[in-house]
Amino acid sequence: MQEMYLLILQGESETLEFKKTITHPARIARTLVSFANTRGGQILVGVQDDGTVCGADPEEEKYSLDIAINTFCDPPVEVIYEEVDMDEGTVLKVIIPESVLKPHLAKVKEDDWRSYIRVKDESVQTSKLVEKSLTLEPATETIEEKVDYQQERILELLRKYRKLTIKDFMHMANLSKQRARRLLVFMVLQGQIRMHDKEKEPFYTLS
């Protein structure tokens, strides 16, 4: 019980979300896939947005979540359920590990499936570029230092120019298109930068 109170005190974040109850399976599916597509996370059902514990009926919530997983997630997201009895009622902890089957898609409406990632405390719809890059192999340990340096270079460029396209980064940071794309997607997933893909040519800004 004490661990649960400490977890709630951390507040909603990239890996934690509160839900009073699960009323819309289609909406919670977006949160589920965003955690699975990013670094994993937890949903505490029976906790209000402000962190107040109100409790929930675990069986009812599991029923709604199972509908979300099996009807509105493709492929279905893996979850682990834990029930924690608190003084105010039972909290259902829904643990979503980072998936090896990413990208997962959430059903928005009939024949309309979209991918989401977790950025800070929000589930954000991805672009086709991010979707494709989620399937790329992670960088090997031997190039981690180089990756860190290149990330810092990208942040420096954005601090100076405010917004840049992938072509800008390729030219200014001397990166191949594949390397630039991998780095930018990784940094979007980490919440360091933000992608804007409504324009003809997507561009990036600092978060």
CATH topology of the largest domain: Methyltransferase, Cobalt-precorrin-4 Transmethylase, Domain 2
Rg over CA atoms: 19 Å
Oligomer designation:
single chain
pLDDT below 50 for ≥5 consecutive residues: which ranges?
A: 139-144
Question: So what's the overall shape?
Answer: elongated
Strand content: 25-35%
Tally of structural domains: 2
CATH architecture descriptor of the largest domain: 2-Layer Sandwich
Number of strands: 11
**What is the helical fraction, as a range of percent?**
25-40%
The CATH H-level superfamily of the largest domain is Schlafen, AAA domain
What does this structure look like?
This is Transcriptional regulator. The protein has 207 residues and is an alpha+beta fold. The chain folds into two domains: 125 residues, Methyltransferase, Cobalt-precorrin-4 Transmethylase, Domain 2 (2-Layer Sandwich), CATH 3.30.950; 75 residues, Orthogonal Bundle (Arc Repressor Mutant, subunit A), CATH 1.10.10. The protein is built from seven helices and eleven strands. It starts with a helix and ends with a strand. 31% of the residues are buried.
Give me a quick take on this structure.
By secondary structure, the chain is α+β, with helices and mostly antiparallel strands.
